[in-house]
Design a protein that fits this description.
The complex is a heterodimer of chains A (164) and B (313).
Chain A (H helix, E strand, L loop, with lengths): L1 H12 L26 E7 L5 H10 L10 E3 L8 E5 L2 E2 L3 H9 L6 E5 L1 H5 L9 E3 L1 H4 L4 E3 L6 H12 L2
Parallel strand pairs in A: 1-2, 1-3, 3-5, 5-7
Antiparallel strand pairs in A: 4-6
Chain B lengths: L1 H31 L9 H10 L12 H19 L15 H21 L3 H32 L4 H10 L7 H17 L18 H4 L5 H26 L10 H27 L9 H22 L1
Classes of the chains: A alpha/beta (164), B mainly alpha (313).
Chain lengths: 164, 313
């Protein structure tokens, strides 16, 4: 009868997703290829993050913020991806994996730098293990500021891409 | 000639309704997980996007990476054409014989396993070996359970079996019929990579079966793989619902019967998909070493169904 109690939990919980905020105004500085409208597969790359941004990315894809309702989905392979979500400063050991992940992603693709570390090295700037910010290594199309960025900000950035 | 037209209609309907079936299944799952869900039309958008992306192929991979998705797609289209989904009339030269359909399933399975090996990654090979193990356990059960249904009809042609069950509803609730349908449901879930055998939405490479084989495919190649494996789900789920509820399947080519057949198929298919998706929420994936026990259980059911169909007629 375990499934009956699970059914009770499902009924009591109802819908926990937050009401959808209005669609963000399109940012003219971001060029989104037409092919990616409405459906975006995201591959997450941790280039040397403290795991703060990972928790927020996880929350954005969780049931409460539910970015999947706008057509974004996490995938397991860069070959399936349209968007690479890069978090953290790029450490020396992650330079080559990051470059190769971008090369393994089919065109048209976008690179999103999530968090202050990915944008400008944040508090780790000048560290001996740091090779640079994400834009020092690969071309970045979209940035999400914050340390760590709120899930709403990550959702808004991905909605820029899906246009939904 | 009319049979050809009917089969073309059947393939087109299956192609149109398959993404919707996946969309409904994902949406039901999202709602039960307290999410909002991407909407039932998301799989159409996903496929349209994949078709517009440049396919990227791994360095050193062979043409198998290009041709295996096409082999899978063509074999799935042939299964959809042969299985009685909206009509029970079949081609005279290529009947919808049980053995033809199972062989076509194997063609697609092998194409996918070879594709998994071709990428040269460890996960691809692992997925291929698991997929072949499951296929080896599934195919005998498919043969046995449909064989049990074919004994009272005296024909191994699927459309004849469905037509005979539709004419004589008493056949549907015989012990042999029920056992065979239960066995078929289990193997269809295993063959199409659903829970509890494989998790279609997993991100963990170590637990993947189907997903692990397609990790190296991108763009158009991936679109063909997705559509090909979704079509298998449509065909097998459609076959099961038509065997379990053999009403509304068009017996002749009159337009009214055809419309009724299409509507009945869509309703039955989407309802079955929603039930499968809802049941999956309550299930965890089985450990790989427990999968043979489940599939052996379904084989026992199919074997009992064959025995019962000989004893009880």
């Amino acid at each position: 009868m375990r499934w009956l109690s699970l059914l009770g939990v499902i009924r009591r919980t109802g819908r926990i997703a937050e009401p959808a905020p209005p669609r963000p105004a399109p940012d003219p500085s971001v060029v989104v290829p037409d092919a990616l409208r409405g459906s975006v597969q995201v591959r997450h790359v941790d280039a040397g993050s403290c795991n703060g941004c990972e928790i927020e990315v996880g929350a954005a894809f969780g049931p409460v913020y539910d970015v999947e309702r706008y057509g974004a989905r996490l995938v397991a392979s860069p070959r399936h991806a349209d968007v690479l979500a890069v978090t953290g400063v790029v450490t020396h050991n992650m330079v080559e994996p990051l470059v190769r992940t971008v090369e393994a992603t089919p065109e048209p693709r976008l690179v999103v730098a999530i968090g202050d570390c990915a944008r400008n090295c944040g508090m780790f700037a000048g560290g001996y293990g740091v090779a640079g910010s994400v834009s020092d290594i690969v071309d970045v199309d979209l940035e999400v500021p914050g340390c760590p960025p709120r899930p709403e900000a990550i959702v808004a950035a991905l909605r820029q891409v899906t246009g939904r | 000639m009319t049979a050809v037209v009917l089969i073309i209609v059947q393939v087109l309907v299956a192609l149109a309704v398959t993404p919707l079936l996946l969309g409904v299944m994902r949406q039901v799952r999202s709602r039960l997980e307290s999410r909002v869900g991407a909407g039932v039309l998301q799989p159409y958008r996903d496929v349209a996007k994949l078709l517009r992306k440049q396919p990227l192929r791994a360095q050193g991979s062979s043409p198998i990476l290009v041709y295996a998705p096409l082999v899978l797609l063509v074999s799935s289209l042939m299964i959809v054409a042969l299985v009685p989904l909206i009509t029970t009339s079949s081609l005279v030269t290529i009947p919808s014989d049980l053995f033809v359909v199972v062989s076509l399933l194997l063609v697609g399975t092998v194409a996918m396993a070879v594709l998994g090996l071709d990428g040269g990654t460890a996960f691809g090979g692992m997925g291929s070996s698991r997929h072949m193990m499951i296929a080896a356990l599934v195919e005998p059960t498919v043969l046995m359970s449909v064989y049990a249904l074919s004994v009272p009809v005296g024909s191994s042609t699927l459309s004849t079996i469905v037509a005979a069950r539709g004419l004589d509803p008493a056949r549907v609730v015989t012990p042999a019929g029920l056992l065979a349908v239960v066995a078929l449901v289990i193997v269809v879930l295993a063959e199409t990579g659903r829970l509890p055998v494989d998790n279609p939405s997993t991100h963990l490479e170590l637990t993947m079966v189907h997903e692990a084989m397609i990790l190296e495919s991108a763009g158009r190649d991936l679109a063909w793989l997705e559509v090909g494996s979704w079509l298998r789900l449509t065909a097998l789920l459609g076959l099961v619902v038509n065997l379990a509820l053999p009403w509304g399947v068009a017996a002749d080519a009159s337009p009214l019967m055809l419309v009724l057949g299409v509507v009945a198929l869509v309703v039955k298919l989407l309802a079955a998909g929603a039930i499968v998706a809802a049941a999956e929420v309550f299930m965890a994936k089985l450990r790989l070493f427990r999968v043979p026990e489940l599939l052996a259980g379904s084989f026992v059911l199919a074997f009992l169904a064959v025995t019962a169909s000989y004893l009880a007629g």
